[in-house]
Design brief:
Length: 258
């Protein structure tokens, strides 16, 4: 499963939407990324956001706070962006410093600008099967299946990981696509048995080598969301070399972004 060509296809459609927005509104859509302190991995991610926006004509900017910023300062910065008519989407860079509560940040974001889908309103819309902003990684995991022509309806899908940002939204999206979904986590018994029965597996555990080829059903489809740094290299949660021999389709990690 190749992300690159799919990303290019989505980017071309978004560029058309952006051009229409610009004609209608007389300005480009605006995205703000709230950054609290700077660490190396998130800097790479931020550069990707800026580059992605530049390619399609979205006006993206950072709202930077220092690493020692108080929760009140972060909430105030988010409220300023909520009130800014040139800003249509707000992303708060995770993980947050320990001193800042995720709940306070989530509560501060205007659901209409919550493009990462972290506000309970958007999470609730997804849970009910209605349209709303979707957490991007979970959306991507299911979109790569859909756009690669993988049949999802009626299939047994296993999602490994139950986080609010990746595992659970991926599971709800797969239910929406009419899969029969099992959600596994660190307390799941007989994970290999569940892996062996699944037609589609989305792995988002943050545990390198958790899934190997011997565990898979012949012809299974595997989407590896995991990002782990092992000996200075990026690895997924799936042992790609053994899994590719059994799977009918599998995402490499790292994948291309087009
Ligand atoms: P997270 O909040 O740490 O959640 C991990 C989930 O996996 C938890 O539900 C945990 O179970 C479960 N888990 C951990 N070890 C397990 C094991 N041995 N067996 C079964 N389940 C296990 O992580 P996250 O934010 O969801 O991210 C998951 C992975 O995706 C990470 O590698 C992260 O780096 C990656 N990620 C990738 C992207 C991307 O763009 N590709 C974006 C975001 C995240 P419990 O709930 O029981 O603890």
């Amino acid at each position: 499963l190749e992300g690159g060509p799919i990303a290019a296809e989505i980017r071309a459609a978004v560029a058309e939407d952006v051009a229409r927005f610009r004609r209608d509104q007389g300005r480009p859509p605006g995205l703000a990324v709230v950054i609290i302190g700077r660490d190396a991995p998130s800097t790479v991610y931020l550069e990707q956001i800026l580059r992605g926006c530049a390619k399609v004509g979205i006006d993206a900017r950072f709202a930077e706070l220092e690493g020692e910023a108080t929760e009140t300062a972060v909430v105030d910065a988010i409220k300023d962006l909520n009130a800014d008519p040139a800003i249509d989407g707000v992303i708060v860079q995770m993980p947050l410093p320990r001193t800042i509560r995720l709940r306070a940040v989530i509560a501060a974001i205007d659901p209409a600008k919550d493009i990462d889908g972290i506000h309970p309103l958007n999470a609730g819309l997804l849970r009910l099967g209605y349209d709303g902003f979707l957490p991007a990684t979970a959306h991507a995991a299911v979109e790569i299946l859909r756009r690669s022509g993988i049949e999802i309806a009626g299939k047994d899908a296993l999602v490994i990981g139950r986080s609010a940002v990746v595992g659970m939204p991926a599971a709800f999206l797969l239910v929406k696509e009419d899969a029969t979904v099992t959600v596994a986590h660190s307390r799941t018994r007989d994970l290999p048995g569940k892996i062996g029965r699944a037609d589609i597996i989305v792995v988002a555990a943050g545990h390198p080598g958790l899934v190997t080829g011997e565990m898979l059903k012949k012809g299974a489809v595997v989407v590896d969301v995991g990002i782990n740094v092992v000996d200075g290299q990026i690895r997924g949660d799936v042992d790609f070399e053994s899994a590719r021999r059994v799977a009918s389709a599998i995402t490499p990690v790292p994948g291309g972004v087009g």
